[in-house]
Design a protein that fits this description.
Elements lengths: L6 E2 L1 E3 H10 L4 E5 L5 E6 H10 L8 E3 L10 E3 L4 H10 L4 E5 L5 E6 L1
Parallel strand pairs: 1-3, 6-7
Antiparallel strand pairs: 2-5, 3-4, 7-8
Helix pairs in contact: 1-2
């Protein structure tokens, strides 16, 4: 039950490097300005991008959405735990994002 670590659609390259050095998560949810889930960025893709160091904007920002899965698996906070667990296991998921009715990210279930 740790604090959910998120990325915004555009992040400074230094922030991504810092995040990867300070955490060991396999993926990071991407949220918009209203905290709504817009994607899930796998750690491996972020690391590969950093190894190539391409695709920054003029301001040195990285468009994280280009590196992300745009439609991660989600469940709502109202879904019974047993049903969410079965969904998680049946699909062999590594991550299941928990959202509210506005699609705001509330948490993430991981293996």
């Amino acid at each position: 039950t740790a604090e959910v670590v998120v990325l915004r659609a555009f992040e400074p390259q230094e922030q991504i490097m810092k995040l990867l050095l300070q955490t060991s998560f396999a993926a990071y949810p991407i949220v918009d300005a209203e905290a709504r889930l817009v994607g899930l960025a796998p750690r491996a893709r972020l690391v590969a991008w950093l190894a190539q160091r391409t695709e920054t904007t003029g301001a040195g920002l990285v468009n994280i959405t280009r590196l992300a899965d745009p439609a991660p698996e989600v469940t709502t906070w109202q879904t019974p735990v047993v049903r969410a667990f079965h969904h998680f296991r049946a699909l062999g998921l590594q991550h299941l994002c928990v959202v509210d009715e506005r699609f705001a990210l509330l948490g993430i279930l991981t293996r």
